[in-house]
Amino acid sequence: MVKNVVAGTIGGIVVCVSAAFIATELRWTRTFAAPFPAIAATTEAATIAHGRYLVFGPAACAYRHVPRDQWTALDAGAMPPLSGNHLFRLPFGEFYAPNLTPDDEDLL
Predict the structure, then answer these.
(1) Is this structure's pTM higher than 0.90?
(2) CB–CB of 42/61 below 8 Å?
(3) What are phi and psi of 46, to 5 degrees?
(4) pLDDT in tens, 53-69
(5) How many degrees, rounded to 5, is the angle at CA 55 between CA 50 and CA 57?
């Protein structure tokens, strides 16, 4: 009796795992057509001002894209160029934040 219950349980598990495997294989090649959004640069003053507000304000992006020695200037309200070089030390390696203003001109 116990042998039949164990065999039935194992058989049920094998059927469920096989069904899951088959379903995964059948769905593996599915693709979804999702067009890329239209992204364009703008020179509209209101959009640039809103971006500057976010970067140097609530989003605090500037603290990751300026070197740490310039954080006191950020605290004082300055808007230094987002030149990168902020070091992120993580357990699997060290990464530097990229320069977001590579031109000679300050865009922000």
Answers:
(1) no
(2) no
(3) -65, -40
(4) 999 999 988 998 988 88
(5) 85
